[in-house]
């Protein structure tokens, strides 16, 4: 509401300043260390069509001495990529491994499913694995890395409510009037874990719920697509981790593919356990991307959001 306050030299603005400096530094390293990725099947010879390759190309001057993107624009793209793409997916994968470490029977069941495919399986096959899909979706439901998002009403509107609520003056209302320009916070985490939507086990990690939903609604399209509809506006029961509507996460398909491939590679070969035991209390800390942190830390634990994990290589 008061943009000038953002410049107020408090602890928060220091964090934001340090954050930008760190992202700029990492962004510069990413550009300098990038090794061209050769992609043969894009019909353009050996061109480097990777995201960073394209940004580097956009930085180069054309014969007329013009650049398609300024250095600042390229750094901003890298900032978006690191924050929206990397941090979110990394946090989700960490949560997924923690849940598997807590639920060894689910880990074993998943491993059996993953081992039905050969080491060099195509992604289309990995995407179709139903239990893997359920585990990924359940992780995103229970541990959405982004806890809230905001919308600004573009016109006056009246929102119908599923159950009446009491106003400050004690009146019961069935609708909410939203004036044009109102900032509306969308509480992703509470919606994803509300008992009204998910039943009494809303707070429990239960991949089976996705299994049942897709079986009941014949929603195999999700599993087959490996991304499919992750948005509630389709009318189906969905988590809100990627937001919803026309400004929902643009990278959801990439995120799902990344998570599935990483889990495919890791869980086939390694067993994961929590040294603190399956009962270890792990909480989500930090904003805007929530990371896991052991609640009952001891002096020997690393500070911050590192969660120690025991990893054992499996034979065969
Ligand atoms: C598990 C991983 C991810 C989660 C949970 C996630 C979540 C979200 C959420 C909640 C939003 C805001 C949507 C809204 O306000 O309705 C968003 C937007 C966005 N995400 Fe993701 N994201 C993930 C991965 C990615 C990846 C891998 C990329 C890029 C490759 C990406 C790029 C973006 C971009 C560019 C936007 C802004 C879209 C717009 O405003 O139109 N995200 N994401």
From TrEMBL:
<keyword id="KW-0408">Iron</keyword>
<keyword id="KW-0349">Heme</keyword>
<dbReference type="InterPro" id="IPR050121">
    <property type="entry name" value="Cytochrome_P450_monoxygenase"/>
</dbReference>
<comment type="similarity">
    <text>Belongs to the cytochrome P450 family.</text>
</comment>
<dbReference type="InterPro" id="IPR002403">
    <property type="entry name" value="Cyt_P450_E_grp-IV"/>
</dbReference>
<dbReference type="InterPro" id="IPR001128">
    <property type="entry name" value="Cyt_P450"/>
</dbReference>
<keyword id="KW-1133">Transmembrane helix</keyword>
<keyword id="KW-0812">Transmembrane</keyword>
<feature type="transmembrane region" description="Helical">
    <location>
        <begin position="248"/>
        <end position="267"/>
    </location>
</feature>
<dbReference type="InterPro" id="IPR036396">
    <property type="entry name" value="Cyt_P450_sf"/>
</dbReference>
<keyword id="KW-0560">Oxidoreductase</keyword>
<comment type="pathway">
    <text>Secondary metabolite biosynthesis; terpenoid biosynthesis.</text>
</comment>
<keyword id="KW-0479">Metal-binding</keyword>
<dbReference type="Pfam" id="PF00067">
    <property type="entry name" value="p450"/>
</dbReference>
<protein>
    <submittedName>
        <fullName>Cytochrome P450</fullName>
    </submittedName>
</protein>
<dbReference type="InterPro" id="IPR017972">
    <property type="entry name" value="Cyt_P450_CS"/>
</dbReference>
<keyword id="KW-0472">Membrane</keyword>
<keyword id="KW-0503">Monooxygenase</keyword>
């Amino acid at each position: 509401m008061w943009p000038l306050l953002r410049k107020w030299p408090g602890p928060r603005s220091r964090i934001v300043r340090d954050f930008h400096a760190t992202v700029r530094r990492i962004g510069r390293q990413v550009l300098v260390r990038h090794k061209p990725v050769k992609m043969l099947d894009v019909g353009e010879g050996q061109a480097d069509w990777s995201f960073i390759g394209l940004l580097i190309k956009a930085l180069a001057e054309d014969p007329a001495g013009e650049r398609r993107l300024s250095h600042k624009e390229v750094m901003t793209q890298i900032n978006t990529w690191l924050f929206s793409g990397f941090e979110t997916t990394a946090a989700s994968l960490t949560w997924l491994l923690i849940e598997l470490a807590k639920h060894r029977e689910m880990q074993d069941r998943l491993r059996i499913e993953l081992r039905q495919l050969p080491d060099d399986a195509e992604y289309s096959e990995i995407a179709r694995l139903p239990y893997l899909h359920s585990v990924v979706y359940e992780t995103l439901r229970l541990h959405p890395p982004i806890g809230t998002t905001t919308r600004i009403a573009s016109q006056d509107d009246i929102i119908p409510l599923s159950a009446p609520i009491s106003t400050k003056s004690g009146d019961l209302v069935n609708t909410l009037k939203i004036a044009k320009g109102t900032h509306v916070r969308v509480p992703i985490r509470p919606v994803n874990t509300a008992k009204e939507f998910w039943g009494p086990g809303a707070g429990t990690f239960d991949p089976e719920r996705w299994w049942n939903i897709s079986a009941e609604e014949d929603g195999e399209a999700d599993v087959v697509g490996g991304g499919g509809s992750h948005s509630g506006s389709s009318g189906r029961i969905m988590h809100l981790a990627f937001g919803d509507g026309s400004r929902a996460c643009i990278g959801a398909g990439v995120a799902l593919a990344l998570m599935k491939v990483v889990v495919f590679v890791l869980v086939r070969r390694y067993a994961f356990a929590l040294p603190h035991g399956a009962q270890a209390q792990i909480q989500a800390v930090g904003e805007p991307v929530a990371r896991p942190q052991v609640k009952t830390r001891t002096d020997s634990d690393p500070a911050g959001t590192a969660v120690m994990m025991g990893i054992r290589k499996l034979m065969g």
